[in-house]
Design brief:
This is Aminopeptidase N. The protein is mainly alpha-helical. It contains five helices and no strands.
Length: 105
Amino acid sequence: MSGPDKPKVIGEEWSDERVKSYLDLTPWDRSINADYFVLSRAYESMRAEDFERFISFFVEAGRDLNAEDEHGATILDRVALHRRSAEYARVLENAGAQKKAAAGN
């Protein structure tokens, strides 16, 4: 079975099963928000088109797009800092993600 433990391969097609498997990730540190952790790992691992599919599954599962990291920043705050992540930010914004004003963005 392929999943989050499979190495990233550029240009590889991801099945829905593999994309959905990220929903099952759990942080090793219980102080980390589980929804933020999952969003972060998906962002780091997936191409934008796979990330878009993942976000649909994430929202459908009732998860929190505005979950915060230990500093009070959302995943959109983080993605917005990366100049080559505009497509990821668009996906998040279209799904209803928001930046935190306190995060300075």
